Amino acid sequence: MSLKDIYLTKSSKNYAGLENNKNSRYEIIGVPFDSSTSYKPGTRFGPDAIRQAASGLESNSYFSDIYLEDIGIIDEGDVGIVIGDINETLNRITGVISDVIQENKIPIMIGGEHTITYGSMRAFKKQGITPCLIVIDAHYDLRDEYLGLKNGHASVMRRSLELLGGTKINYIGVRAYSKEEKNYALSKNNINTIKPSDIYKVGLINAINSVKKFLVDCKHIYLSIDMDGFDPSYAPGVGNPEPGGITNIEGLTIINQIVDERLVGADVVEVSPPYDQGGITSSLAAKLINEIIMKNYISLSKKNS
Amino acid sequence: MSLKDIYLTKSSKNYAGLENNKNSRYEIIGVPFDSSTSYKPGTRFGPDAIRQAASGLESNSYFSDIYLEDIGIIDEGDVGIVIGDINETLNRITGVISDVIQENKIPIMIGGEHTITYGSMRAFKKQGITPCLIVIDAHYDLRDEYLGLKNGHASVMRRSLELLGGTKINYIGVRAYSKEEKNYALSKNNINTIKPSDIYKVGLINAINSVKKFLVDCKHIYLSIDMDGFDPSYAPGVGNPEPGGITNIEGLTIINQIVDERLVGADVVEVSPPYDQGGITSSLAAKLINEIIMKNYISLSKKNS
Amino acid sequence: MSLKDIYLTKSSKNYAGLENNKNSRYEIIGVPFDSSTSYKPGTRFGPDAIRQAASGLESNSYFSDIYLEDIGIIDEGDVGIVIGDINETLNRITGVISDVIQENKIPIMIGGEHTITYGSMRAFKKQGITPCLIVIDAHYDLRDEYLGLKNGHASVMRRSLELLGGTKINYIGVRAYSKEEKNYALSKNNINTIKPSDIYKVGLINAINSVKKFLVDCKHIYLSIDMDGFDPSYAPGVGNPEPGGITNIEGLTIINQIVDERLVGADVVEVSPPYDQGGITSSLAAKLINEIIMKNYISLSKKNS
Amino acid sequence: MSLKDIYLTKSSKNYAGLENNKNSRYEIIGVPFDSSTSYKPGTRFGPDAIRQAASGLESNSYFSDIYLEDIGIIDEGDVGIVIGDINETLNRITGVISDVIQENKIPIMIGGEHTITYGSMRAFKKQGITPCLIVIDAHYDLRDEYLGLKNGHASVMRRSLELLGGTKINYIGVRAYSKEEKNYALSKNNINTIKPSDIYKVGLINAINSVKKFLVDCKHIYLSIDMDGFDPSYAPGVGNPEPGGITNIEGLTIINQIVDERLVGADVVEVSPPYDQGGITSSLAAKLINEIIMKNYISLSKKNS
Amino acid sequence: MSLKDIYLTKSSKNYAGLENNKNSRYEIIGVPFDSSTSYKPGTRFGPDAIRQAASGLESNSYFSDIYLEDIGIIDEGDVGIVIGDINETLNRITGVISDVIQENKIPIMIGGEHTITYGSMRAFKKQGITPCLIVIDAHYDLRDEYLGLKNGHASVMRRSLELLGGTKINYIGVRAYSKEEKNYALSKNNINTIKPSDIYKVGLINAINSVKKFLVDCKHIYLSIDMDGFDPSYAPGVGNPEPGGITNIEGLTIINQIVDERLVGADVVEVSPPYDQGGITSSLAAKLINEIIMKNYISLSKKNS
Amino acid sequence: MSLKDIYLTKSSKNYAGLENNKNSRYEIIGVPFDSSTSYKPGTRFGPDAIRQAASGLESNSYFSDIYLEDIGIIDEGDVGIVIGDINETLNRITGVISDVIQENKIPIMIGGEHTITYGSMRAFKKQGITPCLIVIDAHYDLRDEYLGLKNGHASVMRRSLELLGGTKINYIGVRAYSKEEKNYALSKNNINTIKPSDIYKVGLINAINSVKKFLVDCKHIYLSIDMDGFDPSYAPGVGNPEPGGITNIEGLTIINQIVDERLVGADVVEVSPPYDQGGITSSLAAKLINEIIMKNYISLSKKNS
Ligand SMILES: [Mn+2]
Ligand SMILES: [Mn+2]
Ligand SMILES: [Mn+2]
Ligand SMILES: [Mn+2]
Ligand SMILES: [Mn+2]
Ligand SMILES: [Mn+2]
Ligand SMILES: [Mn+2]
Ligand SMILES: [Mn+2]
Ligand SMILES: [Mn+2]
Ligand SMILES: [Mn+2]
Ligand SMILES: [Mn+2]
Ligand SMILES: [Mn+2]
């Protein structure tokens, strides 16, 4: 064995600095796309920032006696996006995620802007899976269009719902919306909303239970986390910080309570490193991913035992 | 109509990106002055940062079914300040705010350093109005002078109280002071102080009620928000971050509870964009302004109906 | 006259802080578009940064006894771009610039990414004008496509040449290119290239004279300045700094020598404020614009006298 | 007296801008060392940032009617560290702190990386003092080695425990660890851990009481604060932000409750100014130091009266 | 000798990290004042940035076999300025500099904004010295007033000339001015101007010789360097970068050629650290100061030998 | 072939975004080590910044009709350094570089601080090669020790000369040194120095010729580029910017003239991304590497044909 093999570190830029573990079910896929971002671009630097932040975290779970390196991950690198062309980029995402699903793996997509979730939704649809959605976000993203754009981040959930028919969607953290969006959300039975003020009023555990109840009959669940669902004090590094979001511990607890063996995929989006002093948004994003993986792993292990 | 009329966007730098609505009662006035700032200058960039942050927010209220664009605003631009000359700058503020009051409008001043509040106070005095004051701040700003300066931000409330005679002032968030200021505040009947620890001890609602009671017989109310009244986690972008302030939701709830039809004016000061990573301080400032306007509008509508 | 009229400064965000002068021939038009930027986004903040930088410059010319405020400008504000949609954005640019041309004014477009020049080219074509082009750039931008994009900044001159048929184009500052671009440029008679090393070898005056000679029979001239044509020491705030460009004084001298009464329009693009410490790139961009306007004004005055 | 004596300010860079008071027991000692920092260097700038932040704070205590300037401090400046040589640097720290102890003063060390605490521990050992430790930290720092380094920040408490034999150590804020560290900590009777989730579960006062009880028979106490023990929203400016830490008010309350007359020294480490937007981490660090000094002073006064 | 004496470094924040040498003739005096700065504040951080930058430089001269540490300096710290009050600040500067002159020392003032030079001028006048001035600047600073301010940086040389009667002033680097200033400068026999374009046209040595000739009958010389006299590529960290200035080597050569035994004082102003990426402006400022001191020392030594 | 194979981009973080070409002779090896950096740490981020900057450059040579992608590179990733332990890190560098030499490849090391060059020197020595050195640097790095450190960046050439016996070393760009270093350099026949002022005096071509002559009898040449050899206007992103260095075009021309078939290895060090606004230092570093590779390739091709 040469000294190059010993001393050169090939894995240093992998998620959490972990060597890929081919047996792991969890595939990290970066999508550094932000061309439709309306105000402050920068989420294209999100995937690498989250990978690095993950290296700075210890690998323990806050909730169980388990460590990420015992499970392992596969970091597939980034989708080769087409700058300025959301449609082609979405096509590539759909292609890649479809492959992941066919391999019976669980895709964990790291953005990039929220729009990319739609590419993932299409892959599930294509593979015959219609998951229910849990969305942590300050916004509904239910506009029919925004600044003339049908396929932008402000419309991603509108498009996804159209695609997935009557699937259920449970929002957590929503507090900012247009009149149109609010009315749309109120008029639909398949949309449930937990505002931060609801958590304050009924308590975190009751709020979580209402989500569980709403989704009780779902066969598959997909989790999409727009980091602006968190309060700006915990996640300053986003394009549109909106006061009054959930705390980091609330978010982590929600993950730990809601993720189970039904999870088929997840994404964490809208981390904008140029606005993320100290990297605290990236670091929360990484911690969320770690807990998603560890909780799903435990759930699957229990189910299979 | 020419294509220039269609495609050129004249209003893009207005508050919240809204076209001026001449029928609105709310006049936004920037004062980009920071010459007496003792440590970290930068609040001169506050007005534009708050305008931009407002464009990133949705226009809904957190507390009522109302939207800012249904009310409208008039963004008057900035007072032409004189750098290094606080006296002339205060004269200009007084002149401009007097005009606004005479037009029967409500001035919402965005700073700039806290000193500018004194210019507004003089305008009210000149127009025969002696408002009670609600001040959100980490500090009393009651020094008789500071570093040889009589008219600096550390003395703005001392000067204002001298001007307005026995008017009442209710502080919220104060936690940092000199011995002199504390003794001065304790010795005066017309000064009431709600510390963050008081909110913690008695609860937010009780704290708000004590403010309401203290100001119950006031005919007019002026609200002055120094962003350092908030905890640095919610408002890092200020000159003097002081640990242990109020949260963003506490601040917004206070606004929603205390603003009523007696409000004659308001200011939001001390946002320092160079120290405001992710723009979360600007964005909280803008949200506070939105809720001030929406609550006063509702109160006036109820009174008039 | 009210004090608001006296003290509120409406023009503070206009180019160079100048009030619009309706009699001026020079129309400043911002295009804050950067969605197809391949590596470091940020030129969307270029227009405002250049406006502000212009306020920091004195108004004298370096070459003649003339002052910008004696000529005046009209700052039309920004084209309302569609984020992520280069085609619709180009349509709007074409519409706006067409209007300007019809008013017999000279458009000075400030970017934004280089792609926007194509919108301007189409407006001239539409109005029956086929200008020769002078392009200051480190790159040819002559790729047939780049990363799957036909209408991106790397192809803007290829598309423009296709549009304008056999028009002449004179590059200054080019030093970085693909094999394809170099061969394309070499194969065309209507393309002339002055590299920085040519200026070094033959001297600035001889280099300028060769440009003049190449363009001697052009009826109309359009000047497009990609700030990366300058050396990174003079223009660090660009997306792709390429060592070995022209100096600021060389660029200003070129402007002063080459701009004459045939100029029908100009643009200055690719200023990226997030990467422009001290604002020196913005400030050079503003100075270039000032000298373009002042030299064209002198040339027109001479011709008309 | 010359005008130079009057107008030149020699103390402006001292801690809190205070002139040294030779009668004070509190000696501020900076250690700008960060050579073993694994990811984001920058704590070498910590000492000066904390000194400056202290100048921005008012001098009152949040808990008692006392002011820092009535007690005074001695700012001894910085230990002359040897970059890249942790062993020699530790030797110098040990030398300096030994001197301080012999003068019967209380050293307050400001870092710099956490490793420097070991230099201080050796000084106490040398002077015949074996303090119990209270450590606020997100991490145990109990690794036997890390990246081949025995004397790095990840091992500082392991080395200190080895040095001080069976002394007690009470952690507050720990939430991130390797399997090895967790097992080590669980296996030792002299290690007590208060996680943030414990504070949440039992309440702050009960948590504090359990610390008091654990340390009840300690004769001397040394307090070491790694700023990453705080939640990243309160302390973003650290090398490894780990979600879910204690709040600033919890930290200050803990200080106020736990510091008593047994305190023999303290340190505040891991402030990394390049990652500390708005300086809120420095400013919390300074506030913690102020309250440590004021509470110890009160405790000693009571004991001596 | 205690270990504290050995290991604690008291001088680490002195200019160039040098211990004060009481026998040196050169007194460094910081003036962290920027209250009248019109656009981008920040020069208040200049003095410390220059001190630190000096520590990063080697101590050799570029022109002679001499080293700064063989001469030594006295760093007196900073004048205690009054924020927002230029008149009182100027009084203090005048007081301090008068003391320095009376001690027969040479003051080297580091700014801070250019306005502070006037305080120094008054001190010389008061001590019966009327020096000729050499001013490196992009601007004349000869406005009668600017934005209503008589004593601002844009008027500092106008005020100084009024104070010093018919003294001679030689500008180097001027290229940006109002019509009023240009006409004023042209109308006066005691004002000589070397523009950057003059250096280009006649060569550096000839340009320097014309300065020498103009000042040949001056008994005393004071040198004032506004860093914006340099090209923005060499000095980006200034409030108003103006393209086309002198190079760092030109500036250093000018210093080396023009400074002689007649020098009675100097200042280096307008370094603005927040805009000075990489600290290259500070570092040039420090190098200029080093060469000023070393050249004057050599000149005096020759004269005295 | 799966869509993952098509759309996932594994090579995006390789040098210049190029896939490794196993037939290439050029091996890029990063060494992200900066633990002995005395003032401003940050060069540990250099390797990745240079890799990314290389992706932003076109692949053409400025001097010949050749393109980097026709030659190809092998990016080996980074040496796994030991933070704070220069000796072990040097051992690993020596091990890795030895492997590269044995494979008959040419190592291009990217730093990291200058100290790492010593690791490379030991590898050549070990493999029986004693190259002559060409060093571009503002400094001699010939101190016997610095701040107590024998193996720091300030001594790297002293240690290397001791190791390599009487090998020749030719400095280019040196302008800052201690008395000791200057005397050492002057006293040795095997040391030749080209200062920036020499280039100015004799012209670039003559200066280059004197280097060629000095090294004419060398069998092997190693090129070490400390980016602070360049003027700070071209390379602001370094730890110790020293005014008056060489220009980017001078540096590139020197490379093109001096590199020939004798080159056995090279390094480019001291790029400090946190201080490198706009990335212009990284981008110059990458361009230097590209031209080194392309010129050596041409030289070898000629020799072999
Ligand atoms: Mn959102
Ligand atoms: Mn979203
Ligand atoms: Mn305050
Ligand atoms: Mn205040
Ligand atoms: Mn270009
Ligand atoms: Mn271009
Ligand atoms: Mn820690
Ligand atoms: Mn620690
Ligand atoms: Mn100037
Ligand atoms: Mn000046
Ligand atoms: Mn060097
Ligand atoms: Mn070196």
UniProtKB/TrEMBL annotation, chains A, B, C, D, E, F:
Q: How is the cofactor bound?
A: Binds 2 manganese ions per subunit.
Gene Ontology MF term list: agmatinase activity; metal ion binding
Please name the GO terms of the biological process aspect recorded for this protein, alphabetically.
putrescine biosynthetic process from arginine, via agmatine
Print the keywords alphabetically.
Hydrolase, Manganese, Metal-binding
Q: Which CDD domains match?
A: Agmatinase-like_2
- Name the cofactor(s): Mn(2+)
Q: What is this protein called?
A: Agmatinase
**Which species does the entry assign this protein to?**
Caldisphaera lagunensis (strain DSM 15908 / JCM 11604 / ANMR 0165 / IC-154)
The beginning of the lineage is: Archaea, Thermoproteota, Thermoprotei, Acidilobales, Caldisphaeraceae
